[in-house]
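Whether sequence alone determines local backbone shape is best considered at the level of individual chains. Part of our work consisted of pairing the sequence of a single chain with a tokenised description of its backbone. This step matters because it turns folding into a mapping between discrete strings. For completeness, the protein is quoted in full, as a sequence line and a line of structure tokens:

_____
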Amino acid sequence: MVKINKSAEPNILTLNKVNWTTDLLGFINRNEKVPPNVSSRYNQDDIKKTLRDECNNKCMYCESTIAHVSYEHIEHIKPKAKTKFPELTYEWMNLGLSCQICNMNKGDEYDLNLPFINPYLENPSDFIFALGHFIYNKPANTKGELTKRQLKLNRPELLERRQERLESIIRLIERYHAETNPTLKNAIRSEIEFEVGYEKPYSLCAKSIYDAMM
């Protein structure tokens, strides 16, 4: 998980979110079932594209390239469930992009006294860190621990994908240290720096390897 910069709100939300919210809360306040075409109005192409771009097509939580692991979900950071925060269903700052697995693991859990890490508002490295392909919470950091445990950020399939990615980066770094020609050495270093960039999958883990080996 890495810090994400929030993009400008899509125009379709700016123009419609007040009316959409009024309609949604009207159904809830009348104790009526909310029609799917009302509850899922955030599921618009422009909204999804903007979220993909700002997240670099990665899950905002586990950093997997979503297309490689599951279906993409528009994530409501504060849950949109009618017993939680339905008034935030169409709020841009409450929307992110996650993989199906992280979204389901998080579910409708939300504790105002101990919320999950919000990578739009917080730097995840203040709460968690990587050693190799494992994610750990900082000592006595309950927000980091909750996020790691509830979202299962060390689930087996993630560990496997992270390890594969890190092994390819390690081979590049070893190649860099072995090379003596300065021109080729600089070219290899540039490739390494690209591969550990925040826009690439599992960049928190990749950066930990870079810092340790370079």
Remarks:
- Residues 125 and 156 are 22 Å apart (CA to CA).
